[in-house]
Amino acid sequence: MRRMRRPLAALVSLVSLWKLQLLSEGFAQPHLCLRRRRLLDGCVGSLLFSQQARAEETTDLSQFIRFAEEAKTGWQINLPKDWITIRKEAAPSDASGAKSLLFSGGPTKKSEIKVLRASLGSSKSSTLDFFLSPQPAMTKDQAAEALSRSYAKKPSTFRFKLLKSKVLERGSGRILRYGFSVARCEGSQTESEGQKICVKPGSDDKLDTIARHWEVATTVTSTDGKEPYALWIVECSVPSENWKEESAQINQIVDSFAVGTKAQLDQLGS
Fold first, then answer.
1. Neighbour order of strands in the sheet with 226-239
2. Would you place residue 223 in the very low, low, confident or very high pLDDT band (cuts 50, 70, 90)?
3. Which first-to-last residue range defines the signal peptide (predicted)?
């Protein structure tokens, strides 16, 4: 089996590969992305209700989504009934490339969740072993740092903070759960009086950064512990200003994610 020279870098870059893959599907194209976001905003606008009623709904995850077959790895997740799902698909039959399987948005403006499956082929790394080995050499925090590195290193990232991580054993194996906050600068980043600031391109006018909170679930599946391997990623994000209000529900959503055969998912139920 041919090994990649830099398997860890290859694994971490798969998140960026997803963005490139979605160029052909419209998610990463500004005009199409905006169109999808406007569609969600328009749909959920009629679902906004009082703060008290919203609090009562936080545990209602009655929108159950599952794609499972007897001899094929499938996936499932629970979403709130008031989230608008505009894309949901089974994992592709072929094991090549990256595929977006879910896109859904909630009543809180610009809250959204995505599910991705990406083929890793025969590449191996310490990050991959974290999910497949009974006693991985890498800790959960180290794995979370490696997998979130592409976000921290984006040119638009103004501020990045990796938050707590945990491990869940669900479905076909180990799921790594972690969160992070990102403040993005839509202009240029420079320094003034020893501090980094965000300014309009070509001027000294300051721009506000855009801050979002992310909760992520990641797992790796294989065929009887052997290649081909597949990376599964769930990303749920909300504006940072809404995180305190939405945190309980968002954590429930991401924690409900699982992959496995139909028999494995049946054991979990809905």
1. 84-88, 98-105, 112-121, 226-239, 210-223, 173-184, 157-170
2. low
3. 1-28
The two three-digit tokens of residue 96, written as one number: 């090549």
What is the rounded distance in angstroms from the CA atom of residue 180 to the CA atom of residue 162? 4
- At position 53, the amino acid (one-letter code) is A
Count Cα atoms within 13 angstroms, Cβ side, for 226. 2
CA 165 to chain centre: 14
**Residues 124-182 pLDDT 10s:** 788 888 998 888 999 999 999 999 999 999 999 999 999 999 999 887 789 999 999 99
CATH topology of domain 7-268: Protein Transport Mog1p; Chain A (3.40.1000)
DSSP 3-state of 95: coil
| CA angle (115, 87, 85) in 5-degree steps | 95
Q: How far apart are CA 104 and CA 84, in angstroms?
A: 5
Domain ranges of the chain: 7-268
**H/E element holding 130?**
helix 126-132
**Residues 212 and 181 sit within 8 Å (Cβ to Cβ):** yes
CB 180 within 8 A of CB 162: yes
